C-alpha cells in the first residue's frame, strides 16, 4: 500500500502527543540538521506500520503466544508530500516483517518485526501513575482518522505511554545531568531547542492487546523506566527511555524509545 503524509498529519499527531519538534513544521529547522524537507513524525508513520503488521500477524499466525515484541528501526527520515510503500512479509513462521520504503529511491525508511517474546521486567523505583487514554482518545482518533479499519488494541496504549515518556519529569533527570543548560522540565520541551530524532521503538505487550476490540480507553497504570545515556557533547548523545504499564492484571505493555542528538559543539 502507498502511504503519504502532509502538514495536517504533523499537526494532528503533535496535538495528540505534544511532540512539536520544529523539524516537522519548520523548513529552516529541517535544513539546519541537513534534511531537504520537513520530516514526518516517525511515530505517526509507525501507526500505519503497526496496524499493517498487526493485521498480517493475525491473518497468518495460528499460535497463541502470551506476549509479543514489536521492534522498529527508523533508518531514514520520511518526508512530507512524498510517496512510500508499506509492505508486510509473512514468510517466516511466527515472525512478521514490515517495511516502509521510499517509492522512488527504494531505500527502507522504517523496518520492523512482530514476533512472540516474553514480557520484560525492570527494577522500578519511580511511583506508579495513572494515565487515562480516554482523555486523549479524541485526539488519537483524529490523528488516525484516515484509517478505515478498527485499530489494533495495543496502538492507543503504546501511543499513550509515548506521551507519558515525553511528559514525565523523571525521564529528564539524566538529560538534565549532562545538559543542565537546557532548563527543560520534560522531554517535550527539549525538541524546540535541541535537534533530536527517534531511531528505535520497541513495544512488548500481552497478545490479547492485538485484537482491535481489546484495549479501548481503559486507565493505564504505569511507571517510568530509568533512562540510559550514551555518548558525549562532541559526538552527540543517545538516550534510551521507557515506560512500563498495565491495563489490567492480565494485560501489560512496555514501551522503549531510543533518541539521538546531533553533536553539541
From TrEMBL:
Domain MaoC-like: residue ranges: 7-43
Domain of life the protein comes from: Bacteria
Pfam families the record matches: MaoC_dehydratas
Protein's UniProt name: MaoC dehydratase-like protein
Organism: Enterobacillus tribolii
Amino acid at each position: 500500500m502507498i502511504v503519504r503524509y502532509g502538514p495536517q498529519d504533523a499537526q494532528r499527531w503533535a496535538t495528540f502527543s505534544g511532540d512539536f519538534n520544529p523539524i516537522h513544521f519548520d523548513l529552516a529547522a529541517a535544513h539546519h540538521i541537513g534534511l531537504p524537507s520537513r520530516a514526518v513524525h516517525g511515530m505517526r508513520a509507525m501507526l500505519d506500520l503497526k496496524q499493517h503488521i498487526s493485521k498480517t500477524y493475525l491473518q497468518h499466525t495460528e499460535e497463541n503466544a502470551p506476549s509479543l515484541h514489536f521492534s522498529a528501526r527508523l533508518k531514514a527520515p520520511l518526508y512530507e508530500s512524498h510517496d512510500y510503500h508499506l509492505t508486510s512479509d509473512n514468510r517466516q513462521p511466527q515472525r512478521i516483517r514490515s517495511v516502509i520504503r521510499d517509492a522512488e529511491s527504494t531505500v527502507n525508511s522504517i523496518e520492523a518485526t512482530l514476533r512472540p517474546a516474553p514480557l520484560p521486567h525492570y527494577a522500578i523505583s519511580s511511583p506508579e501513575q495513572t494515565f487515562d487514554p480516554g482523555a486523549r482518545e479524541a485526539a488519537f482518533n483524529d490523528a488516525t482518522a484516515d484509517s478505515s479499519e478498527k485499530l489494533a488494541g495495543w496502538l492507543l496504549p503504546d501511543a499513550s505511554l509515548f506521551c507519558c515518556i515525553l511528559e514525565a519529569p523523571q525521564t529528564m533527570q539524566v538529560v538534565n545531568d549532562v545538559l543542565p543548560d537546557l532548563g527543560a522540565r520534560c522531554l517535550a520541551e527539549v525538541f524546540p531547542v535541541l535537534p533530536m530524532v527517534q531511531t528505535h521503538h520497541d513495544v512488548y505487550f500481552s497478545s490479547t492487546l492485538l485484537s482491535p476490540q481489546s484495549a479501548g480507553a481503559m486507565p493505564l497504570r504505569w511507571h517510568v523506566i530509568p533512562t540510559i545515556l550514551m555518548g558525549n557533547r562532541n559526538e552527540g548523545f543517545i538516550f534510551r527511555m521507557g515506560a512500563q504499564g498495565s491495563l489490567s492484571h492480565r494485560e501489560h505493555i512496555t514501551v522503549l524509545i531510543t533518541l539521538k542528538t546531533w553533536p553539541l559543539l
